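[09:14] KT: can someone run the structure on this one? pasting the chain below
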Amino acid sequence: MDHCLVFGARGHLAQSRIIPALKKMGCPYTPISRREVANLEHLKNEKNLVAYMAIPTHNFCENVEPYLDIVNPTYILEKPHGHSKFDFERIKDFIKLNDIDVLYNDHYLGKEILQWIRTPARLESIKLKIHESGDLNDRVNYFDTVGIIGDMYQSHCVLLFATIIAKHLRVDREKILKELSTTKPEVMQLSRSLDYNGNAPTQCKITLNYRGLYLEADMAKMVLKPEKNIIINNETWNLDEGGCAYENVLKQIKRGNESFFLKEKEIDYLWDHASIISC
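[09:31] RB: done, structure tokens below
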């Protein structure tokens, strides 16, 4: 990665995470706003060009279309990857039709704790507690399209379950996601913070049983006391221990480590799992 295009450069993700991380890495970047088409002629022959899509992935096609004949970067697509499995199929068709190079990202893959975490020989339960205090009211338009299940469970939580289980069983993560895709979860709680000005639920607890293993995801936004933990049996691990996950993702991009990211089939399985949730 010799240069990075940052789509959605005025947005929360770009301003708070992506651009600061690029500056820290000393990587030159070009901000791109959805309000106007940028002139990228000077990057036409740039060989190692990356485009970080700090926008909802369901808006990917229309945002990159004006640039298809000008630059040919590797596009980094953020979770959730579309509105639904059907929407993801639409995005895949566009990518294939235009021969676009993409990497599917979930920044939780950059959580350093996943490298250190250890599981006991007898694994009985994995519980996730992901409570965040940040104000969502400046992102109502985004959050109301996905809600707590699309924003956190369908992406972060199921991926964390699969990553930890795959490491424990010493199998490929895709195999676990395939099996989870037909494992029906149970929604135990679904509610909305009184401080949130939108309509989507901001709190949720979901449980499921995978091969006798108890899995629980306790998620909440706009809470007074933030907390992010993984509890394996009775041992607690701090999910945020280590460096910035986005910085770690960008380092993997710079190294050209494509195996770090989600496979297309893994996202299919994540959507299959989400489609059997009954609220």
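[09:33] KT: thanks! The chain has a mean pLDDT of 94.
[09:34] RB: yep, looked fine to me
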